[in-house]
Design brief:
alpha/beta, Elongation Factor Tu (Ef-tu), domain 3, NADPH-cytochrome p450 Reductase, Chain A, domain 3, Rossmann fold, 3 domains, 6-stranded antiparallel sheet, 5-stranded parallel sheet
Length: 420
C-alpha cells in the first residue's frame, strides 16, 4: 500500500519555504563499495538515486502543494511496473535534531545503541536522530518515564494526571498533537540521557509512494506525484518528514536519495483489450497516469475511463495538458472531473460516478476492470458505497446480490484498490 503524503490528511498545509539543508550522504556510505555496485538494490540495500526534477503541479493561488518528482534509476539495475511503489528513505530536519540535542543538553557526539535498531555497534546520537529514528508519535512510555524523572511538582502533577486511567482519551489527544521535542520542552525538569531518549523512539521507516510513470515510456526514471505536508499542531510548525526531505532538502541532480522498488498486486490488466475505469482524485491520480502511459505504449485496444477530482480546476488540475492530449487523441475515452470548491455544492468523484451510473454499469457488464487509488478513510469508502448503489440499481439487484457481485469482482481481480 502506497502513501503519497507523510501523515494522513494534515489539518494545515503551509507554503514551501525553499529550504535547502543537509544531504543524504550518511545514508549511502554502506552501499557504495565496489561489490555493491552490481548488487540487487532492495529495502535493506537501497539505491542512492538522484532527483532530476522537482516542480509544483498546482498553479498560484492553490491551497495545496503537490509536486512532481523525477527519480533517476540509471546504474541501479532496478526495474518496475505500472502499479508498483517507490520506497524512499528520508532524513529528519537538521533544526529538529538540533532542538532535541539542546533540550537534553547533548552535543550529538554521544554514542547510543537504540534497542529497536539492533545495531552491531553504537552510533552517534546525531546520526540516530537524523537518519534512524522517528521524532514524532511519542507513546505513553515516554510520559511514564518523564513522570518518574520530573522534579518540578507542577510537572509531576500534570504528567501523573495524564496517566490516570480515566484520562486515557485526554492522553491520546495530548500525544497526537505532540512530538518528542514538545514533551522535553514542556517538562524540562525531567532530565533524560541520550540513551534514555533514543530507547523511547521508533524506527524511522521509509515512505512508499505510488509510481506515476510507466517503464515502457521511462525505463530509467520513476515519476512521483506527492502532496507536500506542512501543518501546525500545539503551536508548532510541522512537516512531513519524507515529503519535505524531497522537496526542501535535496538538491536536484546532486543529493543522493536512497530508494527501492516495492512490487504491488495493483496494476493494469495484462490483456490490453480489457476496458479500465480508474478513480483517482488528488495524488491518487499517480498510478493511473502510469496505467494510461503503459496502455498507450502497448497500443492497447481497451478503453480508458478516468475519474479525477481536486479542489479547483484553475489551480489543482494535475497533469491537465497530458489528460487533455490523451482525450484529444482518443487514448482516454472518458474523463470525468470533479471540483469540490468551484461551486457552492461540493462535487466529488463519487458524484460523477452516480451521474454516469448506466454507462459505468455497461462497462462493468462488458468486463471492465475498476480501480481506486487515494484516501482510504473517506474517498475510497464513499466510492465503494456508490459502486454498490450503481450495481444494485442498474443491475436490478438487492443489496446482498450487489455485495456478492463486488466480491466476485475482487476475486477476479477486476476491482483493485491502492488506498492509504
Amino acid at each position: 500500500m502506497a502513501v503519497n503524503i507523510d501523515r494522513g490528511q494534515a489539518p494545515h498545509l503551509r507554503r514551501n519555504k525553499g529550504l535547502r539543508e543537509s544531504s543524504a550522504e550518511p545514508f549511502i556510505r554502506t552501499i557504495m563499495s565496489d561489490e555493491s555496485v552490481t548488487a540487487q538494490f532492495t529495502k535493506d540495500n537501497p539505491f542512492p538515486a538522484r532527483i532530476t526534477e522537482n516542480r509544483v503541479l498546482n498553479k498560484p493561488g492553490s491551497s495545496k502543494e503537490t509536486r512532481h518528482f523525477v527519480v533517476n534509476l540509471t546504474g541501479s539495475g532496478l526495474s518496475y511496473k505500472a502499479g508498483d511503489s517507490l520506497g524512499v528513505f528520508a532524513q529528519n530536519r537538521p533544526e529538529e535534531v538540533a532542538a532535541l540535542l539542546d533540550a537534553i543538553g547533548a552535543s550529538g557526539d554521544e554514542f547510543v545503541s537504540p534497542t529497536m535498531l539492533r545495531l552491531a555497534e553504537p552510533i552517534t546520537l546525531r546520526e540516530a536522530l537524523t537518519e534512524r529514528l522517528a521524532l514524532a508519535s511519542p507513546t505513553t512510555k515516554i510520559v511514564k518515564t518523564l513522570a518518574e524523572k520530573a522534579t518540578d511538582p507542577a510537572e509531576q502533577a500534570k504528567l501523573n494526571g495524564l496517566l490516570e486511567p480515566e484520562a486515557k482519551e485526554v492522553l491520546t489527544t495530548f500525544l497526537y498533537n505532540r512530538e518528542y521535542i514538545d514533551l522535553l520542552t514542556e517538562f524540562p525538569s525531567a532530565k533524560l540521557s541520550a540513551q534514555e531518549l533514543v530507547d523511547h523512539m521508533r524506527k524511522l521507516m521509509p515512505r512508499l509512494y505510488s509510481i506515476a510513470s510507466s517503464p515502457k515510456v521511462y525505463p530509467q526514471e520513476i515519476h512521483l506525484t506527492v502532496a507536500i505536508v506542512r501543518y501546525e499542531t500545539n503551536h508548532r510548525e510541522r512537516v512531513g518528514v519524507c515529503t519535505t526531505f524531497m522537496s526542501d532538502r535535496t538538491t536536484v541532480n546532486a543529493t543522493p536519495v536512497p530508494v527501492f522498488v516495492s512490487s504491488s498486486h495493483f496494476g493494469p490488466p495484462e490483456d490490453g483489450s480489457i476496458d479500465c475505469i480508474m478513480v483517482g482524485p488528488g495524488t491518487g491520480i499517480a498510478p493511473f497516469r502510469a496505467f494510461v502511459q503503459d496502455r498507450v505504449a502497448d497500443g492497447a485496444s481497451g478503453r480508458n475511463w478516468v475519474f479525477f477530482g481536486d479542489q479547483k480546476k484553475g489551480t489543482d488540475y494535475l497533469y491537465e495538458e497530458e489528460w487533455t492530449d490523451y482525450v484529444a487523441k482518443g487514448q482516454v475515452q472518458r474523463l470525468d472531473l470533479a471540483w469540490s470548491r468551484d461551486q457552492l455544492t461540493k462535487i466529488y468523484v463519487q458524484d460523477r460516478m452516480r451521474e454516469n451510473a448506466s454507462e459505468l454499469w455497461a462497462w462493468l457488464k462488458a468486463g471492465a476492470h475498476f480501480y481506486v487509488c487515494g484516501d482510504a478513510k473517506r474517498m475510497a469508502k464513499d466510492v465503494d458505497a456508490v459502486l454498490h448503489e450503481i450495481i444494485a440499481e442498474e443491475g436490478g439487484m438487492d443489496s446482498a446480490a450487489a455485495t456478492d457481485y463486488i466480491k466476485q469482482l475482487k476475486k477476479d481481480k477486476r476491482y483493485q484498490r491502492d488506498v492509504y
